[in-house]
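step=predict obj=Plasma membrane calcium-transporting ATPase 2 n=134
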Amino acid sequence: MRQHSSVVRGQGGQGNYECSMQELQGLMQLRGLEAVEVISRKYGGVNGLCKRLRTSPTDGECVTNRELAQRRNAFGTNVIPPTPPKSFLQLMWEALQDVTLIVLMVAAGVSLLLALYSKCELFVFFFSFSWKIR
Protein backbone atom coordinates (compact mmCIF):
# COMPACT_ATOMS: atom_id res chain seq x y z
CA MET A 1 0.00 0.00 0.00
CA ARG A 2 1.35 3.36 -0.97
CA GLN A 3 1.27 6.24 1.48
CA HIS A 4 0.75 9.78 0.28
CA SER A 5 2.82 12.54 1.78
CA SER A 6 1.22 15.56 3.32
CA VAL A 7 2.78 18.86 2.38
CA VAL A 8 2.48 21.63 4.93
CA ARG A 9 2.42 24.82 2.89
CA GLY A 10 4.66 27.72 3.64
CA GLN A 11 3.45 31.27 4.15
CA GLY A 12 5.05 32.80 1.07
CA GLY A 13 4.90 32.17 -2.64
CA GLN A 14 7.29 30.12 -4.72
CA GLY A 15 10.24 32.39 -3.98
CA ASN A 16 13.13 32.48 -6.47
CA TYR A 17 12.31 29.08 -7.95
CA GLU A 18 11.04 28.58 -11.48
CA CYS A 19 8.82 25.69 -10.44
CA SER A 20 5.77 26.02 -8.19
CA MET A 21 4.63 23.65 -5.48
CA GLN A 22 1.51 22.84 -7.53
CA GLU A 23 3.70 21.78 -10.47
CA LEU A 24 5.74 19.51 -8.20
CA GLN A 25 2.58 17.99 -6.74
CA GLY A 26 1.34 17.32 -10.27
CA LEU A 27 4.64 15.61 -11.13
CA MET A 28 4.31 13.36 -8.08
CA GLN A 29 0.95 12.09 -9.37
CA LEU A 30 2.51 10.84 -12.62
CA ARG A 31 4.08 7.39 -12.94
CA GLY A 32 6.36 5.58 -15.36
CA LEU A 33 6.90 6.78 -18.92
CA GLU A 34 4.30 9.49 -18.58
CA ALA A 35 6.35 11.17 -15.84
CA VAL A 36 9.54 10.89 -17.89
CA GLU A 37 7.84 12.42 -20.93
CA VAL A 38 6.38 15.34 -18.96
CA ILE A 39 9.69 16.10 -17.23
CA SER A 40 11.55 15.92 -20.56
CA ARG A 41 9.03 18.04 -22.45
CA LYS A 42 8.24 20.64 -19.79
CA TYR A 43 11.54 20.99 -17.95
CA GLY A 44 14.17 19.68 -20.37
CA GLY A 45 14.85 16.54 -18.35
CA VAL A 46 15.88 15.95 -14.76
CA ASN A 47 18.81 18.35 -15.03
CA GLY A 48 16.48 21.11 -16.21
CA LEU A 49 14.11 20.48 -13.31
CA CYS A 50 17.01 20.54 -10.85
CA LYS A 51 18.19 23.82 -12.38
CA ARG A 52 14.74 25.35 -11.91
CA LEU A 53 14.70 24.19 -8.28
CA ARG A 54 18.24 25.53 -7.77
CA THR A 55 19.65 22.20 -6.63
CA SER A 56 22.18 19.64 -7.87
CA PRO A 57 21.11 16.25 -9.29
CA THR A 58 24.25 14.65 -7.80
CA ASP A 59 24.87 16.57 -4.57
CA GLY A 60 21.31 17.44 -3.57
CA GLU A 61 20.63 20.65 -1.73
CA CYS A 62 23.75 22.47 -0.59
CA VAL A 63 21.94 25.12 1.38
CA THR A 64 22.51 27.34 4.36
CA ASN A 65 19.94 27.81 7.10
CA ARG A 66 18.70 30.93 5.32
CA GLU A 67 18.24 29.07 2.02
CA LEU A 68 16.53 26.22 3.83
CA ALA A 69 14.10 28.69 5.41
CA GLN A 70 13.40 30.14 1.95
CA ARG A 71 12.73 26.65 0.55
CA ARG A 72 10.38 25.85 3.43
CA ASN A 73 8.64 29.17 2.89
CA ALA A 74 8.26 28.47 -0.84
CA PHE A 75 7.39 24.77 -0.79
CA GLY A 76 6.41 23.95 2.80
CA THR A 77 7.63 20.91 4.70
CA ASN A 78 7.26 17.39 3.36
CA VAL A 79 5.71 15.31 6.12
CA ILE A 80 4.31 11.79 6.00
CA PRO A 81 1.72 11.55 8.78
CA PRO A 82 1.96 8.35 10.82
CA THR A 83 -0.85 5.89 10.25
CA PRO A 84 -2.87 5.10 13.36
CA PRO A 85 -2.11 1.61 14.72
CA LYS A 86 -4.71 -1.11 14.31
CA SER A 87 -6.57 -2.30 17.38
CA PHE A 88 -6.21 -5.83 18.69
CA LEU A 89 -9.71 -6.71 17.44
CA GLN A 90 -8.89 -5.43 13.94
CA LEU A 91 -5.75 -7.57 13.88
CA MET A 92 -7.74 -10.59 15.08
CA TRP A 93 -10.40 -10.03 12.41
CA GLU A 94 -7.74 -9.84 9.69
CA ALA A 95 -6.13 -13.03 10.99
CA LEU A 96 -9.50 -14.81 10.92
CA GLN A 97 -9.74 -14.10 7.18
CA ASP A 98 -6.70 -16.32 6.50
CA VAL A 99 -7.64 -19.62 4.84
CA THR A 100 -4.99 -21.61 6.72
CA LEU A 101 -6.28 -20.39 10.06
CA ILE A 102 -9.87 -21.20 9.07
CA VAL A 103 -8.87 -24.78 8.16
CA LEU A 104 -7.00 -25.15 11.45
CA MET A 105 -10.00 -23.86 13.45
CA VAL A 106 -12.35 -26.29 11.69
CA ALA A 107 -9.94 -29.16 12.37
CA ALA A 108 -9.70 -28.13 16.04
CA GLY A 109 -13.49 -28.00 16.30
CA VAL A 110 -13.86 -31.48 14.76
CA SER A 111 -11.17 -32.80 17.08
CA LEU A 112 -12.93 -31.31 20.11
CA LEU A 113 -16.30 -32.75 19.08
CA LEU A 114 -14.79 -36.20 18.55
CA ALA A 115 -13.08 -36.05 21.94
CA LEU A 116 -16.30 -35.01 23.70
CA TYR A 117 -18.34 -37.61 21.83
CA SER A 118 -15.97 -40.44 22.73
CA LYS A 119 -15.88 -39.39 26.42
CA CYS A 120 -19.67 -39.15 26.49
CA GLU A 121 -19.97 -42.60 24.92
CA LEU A 122 -17.44 -44.00 27.43
CA PHE A 123 -19.37 -42.38 30.28
CA VAL A 124 -22.68 -43.92 29.09
CA PHE A 125 -21.01 -47.30 28.55
CA PHE A 126 -19.44 -47.23 32.05
CA PHE A 127 -22.74 -46.48 33.81
CA SER A 128 -24.76 -48.96 31.75
CA PHE A 129 -22.16 -51.64 32.52
CA SER A 130 -22.21 -50.83 36.25
CA TRP A 131 -25.99 -51.22 36.36
CA LYS A 132 -25.69 -54.67 34.79
CA ILE A 133 -23.22 -55.85 37.42
CA ARG A 134 -25.51 -55.09 40.35
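step=describe
The radius of gyration is 33 Å.
step=end
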